[in-house]
Amino acid sequence: MKHRICVITGSRADYGLLRETLFRLRDMEQISLDLVVTGSHLSSSFGNTETEILKDGFSAYGRVPIPLGNDGKEDMAKATGAALSIFADYFHQNRPEALLVLGDRYEILAAVIAAHMMGIPIAHISGGDITEGAVDNAIRHSITKMSVLHFPGCSHSARRIIQMGEDPSMVFNVGEPGVENCLKTQFMTRQELEESVGFSGVRGNYSVVTFHPETMGNNTEGEQVRSLIRAMDYFSDMSYIITLANADAGGHEINALWEAEGEKHKNWLVVPSLGVRRYLSAVKNSCMVIGNSSSGIVEAPALRVPTVNIGDRQKGREMAESVICCEPETEMICKAMEKALNPVFREKSREVHSPFGDGRTSEQIVSILIQKLDGGEMDLEKPFFDITPVGALNRDGFGRSTTN
Q1: Fewer CB atoms inside 10 Å of the end CB: C or N, the chain?
Q2: Which residues contact residue 64 at a Cβ distance below 8 angstroms, ignoring those fewer than 6 apart?
Q3: In whole angstroms, what is the distance from residue 262 CA to residue 246 CA?
Q4: On the CB side of 151, how many CA atoms lie within 13 Å of its CA?
Q5: In angstroms, rounded to a whole number, what is the distance separating the alpha carbons of residues 106 and 127?
Q6: pLDDT digits (tens, 9 = 90+) for 300-349
Q7: Are 105 and 5 in contact (CB under 8 A)?
Q8: Shortest CA distance to 190 belongs to which of 177, 180, 201?
Q9: Is 347 exposed, middle or buried (CB count within 10 Å of its CB: 0-12, 13-18, 19+)?
Q10: Closest Cα partner for 21 from 178, 148, 160, 246?
């Protein structure tokens, strides 16, 4: 009997990270894969990234359109509520044995809430991370608490998941899928990339830029991007490949700025999405990755490329020594870019150690998932794992003092 596994992808970001796991699940005799495509994949505003899924050979999948809302935080909340109802209907008609999800997006939260309430066990990839500048931080932890099986990307994240009361026997540090992508991708040459994207700027020095809203901030996305643009203009001999922001509150404002400024800058290429192979090829041949995307934290260090990480969106995450953090101010961004271009720092970046695994992520996820399903271990009635036994707590709820 096959195990029916549902996997949901809602954006270019999570699909790129799920690809290798999806390929393995699709090819396993023990698995019946139920792939669901939703969110910004189905929107022309975000590049119709569903086409990348089709190019990868996935044709028999469910399309679940959900409202993406406008550009306000209240719109994200309303979209989450609407998506919850839609996914409840989907799972009622297409009930899997388990749901596998990645990350921390609001559309994934909606699907997870529906599955949890309907008694569908959940396996979660990349839980336990910290991103203090985004609402995704609390969403990610919420998904963790509704999940039975956990696949964090580093040891610190695994420890946090256990600290949240999850059973250590169901927490597996498998590394980040982005590292596996870096090791398995057949990279394009600069010439191939130029021909594919139609941008001659990749012949010389260029950087890759992605800037998402800080959804825990005070709606200052526009000014932060303007500060970044001023810094980019300071390095006038540099070309830039800019990928647009995702479907978060404030994303439309950011994208409008990029597109308007892109008309004025001949040394820019502004695109909704590049796809996994083109994006990683662009990063590999670049001078640096600039912005606040998780790809600057995970993929860029794995490709030995410096990162200029701006602002608080990724604050709290485990970071390699090739990541330079700075405030979203023009002067600070310029200093960080100068450091990234320094030959000594670039050489150091080529020798950096990534804390996010050895590239065997998808192999481990599929093997462990099948093992747990075969053994009937995906139990919804999970106990709370106390790091400190309850008997060792004092009346205030803290650990017992070792002094008299």
Answers
A1: C
A2: 36, 37, 38, 86, 87, 90
A3: 18
A4: 27
A5: 14
A6: 999 999 999 999 889 888 999 999 999 999 999 999 999 999 999 999 99
A7: no
A8: 201
A9: exposed
A10: 178
Residue length of the chain: 404
* Tokens matching residue 208: 């890759």
Nearest by Cα to 311 from 227, 253, 207: 227
* Secondary structure element (H or E) that encloses residue 27, with its range: helix 12-27
CA dihedral 361, 367, 125, 59 (to 10 degrees): 90
- How far is C-alpha 267 from the geometric centre of its chain's CA atoms? 28
Spatial contact of 10 and 40, defined as CB atoms under 8 Å apart? yes
The residue assigned the tokens 């941008």 is 199
Q: Which amino acid is at 203?
A: R
Q: Label residue 13 by pLDDT band (50, 70, 90).
A: confident
Tokens of 269: 């290429």
**Rounded to whole angstroms, how far apart are CA atoms 311 and 319?**
14
Neighbours of 389 (CB within 10 A): 9
CATH 3.40.1230.10 correct for 188-349: no
- This prediction has a pTM of 0.85
* φ, ψ (nearest 5 deg) of residue 64: -125, 90
Burial (CB count within 10 angstroms: exposed 0-12, middle 13-18, buried 19+), residue 330: middle
* 3-174+360-390 and 188-349, same CATH topology: yes
Phi-psi region of 277 (alpha: psi -120 to 50; beta: other; left: phi over 0): alpha
- Tell me which residue of 321, 315, 317, 316 sits closest to 300, measured CA to CA: 321
Give just the sign of the alpha carbon dihedral 389, 391, 397, 402.
negative
Contact 78, 68 (CB under 8 A): no
pLDDT digits (tens, 9 = 90+) for 110-129: 999 999 999 999 999 999 99
327 burial (CB, 10 Å; 0-12 / 13-18 / 19+) is middle
